[in-house]
């Protein structure tokens, strides 16, 4: 069955949906996006995603008001039309269509695209096995806090990791881990403290990361926001990634060195379970 997607005011079968070849998202990656998880047919942390979208748009000077555009209603309608129970809604807003020029046009109308993707989020193989990551230099631009569609390098690195028999990459800059190809990276030290890189232009300010840090602080765990090295990760008791669709997923090896006993750890399991429970209690329909 073909999906129904949303493009610039219309709900269309995916085969009939199209964007102009002159769209600045196509030519310059002049576009921002959000991915919202859907569980039990409801959305996880929709409001936080909308706030980050507003920030990304403002940083790029794209004149688009998500609230005026009724994005919540569009998400709901797309979930309904595709009978989506579990998976994600992808939303992209580009600056719009204009003749190709490095000078950003001021008059074009932003393009808006939404689609759904059905996939298992609650039960995944990686939750049981954990992920093996390799490290690679972080060669992305230095405004990683803006969620743009400029994803070529992380896509190349994810592909490289899989070609080398691993699951994903952790990128490294100045001797410390920045983040995964599409996730934030965290470790749990031998003393139980959660160590994670602080928010800055170096990383995307993950919505899942923020929720997990709140929870960890509520439970009285020490949360230390500072960069950590690859060696620290390899000596950690546990390690995990967070993202809207991976939730909290254990990492069991970094560059072939096992973390702890090489199996997903209990603290990561606890954090994942709590994250899922809390998300399910607050789903937005
Ligand atoms: N870091 C990067 C580079 C990402 O692409 C993502 C998600 O796509 C994240 C972190 C996690 O962010 P969130 O938890 O908001 O999905």
UniProtKB/TrEMBL annotation:
Q: Which reaction does it catalyse?
A: L-isoleucine + 2-oxoglutarate = (S)-3-methyl-2-oxopentanoate + L-glutamate; L-leucine + 2-oxoglutarate = 4-methyl-2-oxopentanoate + L-glutamate; L-valine + 2-oxoglutarate = 3-methyl-2-oxobutanoate + L-glutamate
Which keywords belong to this entry? Answer: Aminotransferase, Transferase
Q: Which Pfam family, an example, fits this chain?
A: Aminotran_4
> In the Enzyme Commission scheme, what number(s) does this protein have?
2.6.1.42
Q: Which InterPro entries match?
A: Aminotrans_IV, Aminotransferase-like, BCAT-like_C, BCAT-like_N, Class-IV_PLP-Dep_Aminotrnsfr
Which Gene3D superfamilies does the UniProt entry name for this protein?
A: 3.30.470.10, D-amino Acid Aminotransferase, subunit A, domain 2 (3.20.10.10)
Can you tell which superkingdom this protein's organism belongs to? Bacteria
Which pathway does it operate in?
A: Amino-acid biosynthesis; L-valine biosynthesis; L-valine from pyruvate: step 4/4; Amino-acid biosynthesis; L-isoleucine biosynthesis; L-isoleucine from 2-oxobutanoate: step 4/4; Amino-acid biosynthesis; L-leucine biosynthesis; L-leucine from 3-methyl-2-oxobutanoate: step 4/4
**CDD domains annotated for this entry?**
D-AAT_like
SUPFAM superfamilies found in the cross-reference section: D-aminoacid aminotransferase-like PLP-dependent enzymes
GO MF term set: D-alanine-2-oxoglutarate aminotransferase activity
Provide the family line.
Belongs to the class-IV pyridoxal-phosphate-dependent aminotransferase family.
Q: What PANTHER family does the entry give?
A: AMINO-ACID AMINOTRANSFERASE (PTHR42743), AMINODEOXYCHORISMATE LYASE (PTHR42743:SF11)
The UniProt function text for this chain reads: Acts on leucine, isoleucine and valine.
**What's the protein called, per UniProt?**
branched-chain-amino-acid transaminase
Q: Which organism is it from?
A: Spiribacter roseus
The lineage, from the top, is: Bacteria, Pseudomonadati, Pseudomonadota, Gammaproteobacteria, Chromatiales
